[in-house]
Structures are given as C-alpha cells and as structure tokens.
Amino acid sequence: MPLIAIVIAALAIGFEQLIQWKYGPMGIVAFVLLTVGIKAKNTKISGVGAAILVLLLAQSG
C-alpha cells in the first residue's frame, strides 16, 4: 500500500511540474483550484479551475 501511495504522489508531482512548465504559474493555479474543488466537492471552485485550464489549452493550441 505505501508503494502505491508513493507512486501516485510522484505522478501527481510530475504532472504538476509539467503543467507549470508548459502553462506557467496560471496553469498551477488552475490545477490547484481544480484539485481542491474536487477534494472538497465544491463545484464552483473546480469549475473555475477547469475553465482556466480550458482557456490555457485553447490559447496554446
């Protein structure tokens, strides 16, 4: 069980670093809002985070 938790944490940190590298600080803010909203079961916060990520993805594409 601890090995699975370590692997998941490493993947999450790697994904967070990828977002920050590609989309800058606003990408990290959006990712954090989305994550916090999902964990807190707050649709407004997760919706704002998802919307910011979509805008960043649309802008880069």
Report on the architecture of this protein:
By secondary structure, the protein is mainly α. 92% of the residues lie in helices and 0% in strands. It is built from two helices and no strands. The chain has helices spanning 2-39, 43-60. The chain is flat and about 40 Å long.
Approximate strand percentage: under 5%
The main pleated sheet reads as: none
Which secondary-structure class do the elements indicate?
mainly alpha
Order of helices and strands: HH
Distance between the termini: 39 Å
The Rg value, from CA coordinates, equals: 13 Å
Task: Please state the overall shape, judged from the principal axes of the Cα atoms.
Answer: flat
| Total number of strands | 0
Low-confidence stretches: none
Number of helices: 2
Helix content: over 70%
